[in-house]
Amino acid sequence: MSRLPKPTSSTKIRPIPSVKPFGSTSENTITFGEIKTKAHEAPPAINKYPTFTANSLRRRSKSVADLTTADKHPSINKCAPFIANRFNKNRRQSKSYSDLTTIVRQPFTRSFKPITERKAPTAGPQNKAFPSTSRVPPLKSGATKTTLVGSKRPAAKSDEGGPKAKAARKIPDWDYKGRFLQLNEKYEQLQNCMKGLQDKANQFESTKEEYEKIQKEHEIDIKTIDSLRRENESKTRKCQELTTSLDELKPAHETLTRNYNSLQNNFDKLNEEFNKYQEQNKNLLEKLNKEKKENIELKEVITLQKSDLINYQTERRVLHNTIQDLKGNIRVFCRIRPPLLSELKQIQCSIEFINENGIEIRKSQESYDQITGKLKEIKSEFTYDKVFAPQSSQEEVFEDLAQLVQSALDGYNVCVFAYGQTGSGKTYTMQGGGGIQKGMIPRTFDLIFKNIAELQRSGWSYTVKASFLEIYNENIRDLLTTKQGQKHDICFNEGAETTVTNLSIQTINSAAELERYMVLAHRNRATAATDFNEHSSRSHAVTKIYLEGTLEDLVYKGSLNLVDLAGSENAKQSVAGDRLTETKNINKSLATLGDVIQHLHHKSRHIPYRNSKLTYLLQSSLGGNSKTLMIVNISPIESCFMESLNSLRFAAKVKQVKIASKRNKMNVTSMKQ
Ligand SMILES: Nc1ncnc2c1ncn2[C@@H]1O[C@H](COP(=O)(O)OP(=O)(O)OP(=O)(O)O)[C@@H](O)[C@H]1O
């Protein structure tokens, strides 16, 4: 190249006929040095990348565009800004790439203008070699400016030089120098072009590297997008499942909502009621507190009044029993029964009732008084605590007995026994009949429970127990049981109650219950006897009522012995055998009773209670702390006169006895004696 002569101004520019414009199908092959290429083809090294890059970028742009437009799911949208950035970056790169391809392809898609058409440089030594009309720039070292005129350049422009320029385009074949120079110039132009292309290729290499980097990033993005898509799909599936289950749950939800609303309504109503009740409760509480205060005050008053009541009751008891004592601890009533229908034809005793306490009984004897010549008369006058005429009712008899029942409730031992000959009316007096004929025993039951009910109102509580027995031929028999062969012994401990072994003692809660036991005892007594009337006349029937009253630390223990004695009978009148033995036993026990009373009257140190089962059993009711009432029954028939007289005499003896009784009290603190 250096050996080539430099063009001078004088050098004729000749057209180069072999050089044809690029774009022609057959003649656009350019050969310089070893490089031989076609004008419409880019060099392989250059064209490989743009083609790849362009397609790849197109695909990439398309995939990115698809992603950004097709996938609207939140998970994709999340990365949409990132993808958009990437896409824009790619687009920018694509733009720079298209510039590049434009540049790269430019030389090959355009045909060169003939050198002859080029204007010759205006100055410089090189211009001398070229004609002034030549457009070929001056050849300077490093000067790469090449003006390549495309084939589409208008032909008029090519003809700018006129006929002279047309002549200059063609260098004659013989002008090897000119042609050489022309070729040389072209070569340099191509070399410059190659250098530019090389730069572009380098630039492209860096773009490629960047592109690969971006592609890697893109692949990561795609992977991310894939994973997001998978996640999205899984979430979508989950979402669909949830939607399905939500649809399934909707009816239940609606039912629950309805229930909830109904419950809410109920709750509101209840809440309203609750508030109302709370208000009422508040008012009631206030009232309650007020009443509590009043209650406390009243309790204090009640306590005071209770204490007063106890004092009054104590006083009443003291006074009551003082009166009873004044009346006598052994009291004797005399009752003359009316004659029975069967006895109306019989001669009646002459009985005169002096007053309510005195009685005079007379009987004319068959013998005459030798002095007066009148019929002799047996006349006896007796005074008792009370005398009841034949017309006296059971109620009248019970009036005084009732005082003793109160004493038994006050803690005294009371003994009431009916004495008299057989058929004198003992059983009638003690047991009686129905209605107004009710005897002393059932009336006592009624009064006990009536008084207990009153005492309970002032704080007392009572327990009532009862036993029924009979003493026949000095043997005790429990009348509440039908068991045979039971042996009963009497036990007495000083200061304690008299007790009978194996005896049934029933707790009683009402008068009626007590009466039922009385009827049972009466029945059992009858069952044991072959002839009840005979048997009943020869045994002592004892009904015992145990009373225990409690008020705080105060305990009163009293008892009531209601005894229907066997008929007193003259032994001389009794026939021999069992009847005689019975009579002897009866008389023995009645005599012992008389003895005991006499000893009590004389305040003897030894009282012969144990001489008979009857006195031993009644020991606690005949002794110190007891109140005794004897009802002596008299038959109005004159034939019974002597028996009646004996009974009256016995009762008179008993009447003389004065016993100082004392109450069975325990833990008494405020008792006035
Ligand atoms: N006050 C009276 N009023 C009416 N009738 C009476 C009265 N007293 C007794 N009687 C009658 O006299 C009869 C004999 O009385 P009661 O059986 O009570 O005598 P008693 O003394 O118990 O005889 P016993 O010792 O044999 O048992 C009976 O029919 C009874 O109804």
UniProtKB/TrEMBL annotation:
Residues 1-69, 116-168 are annotated as: Disordered. GO terms for molecular function: ATP binding; microtubule binding; microtubule motor activity. The keyword Glycosyltransferase does not apply. It comes from the Eukaryota. Residues 329-657 form the Kinesin motor domain. GO terms for cellular component: microtubule. Residues 180-301 form a coiled coil. Belongs to the TRAFAC class myosin-kinesin ATPase superfamily. Kinesin family. KIN-14 subfamily. This is Kinesin-like protein.
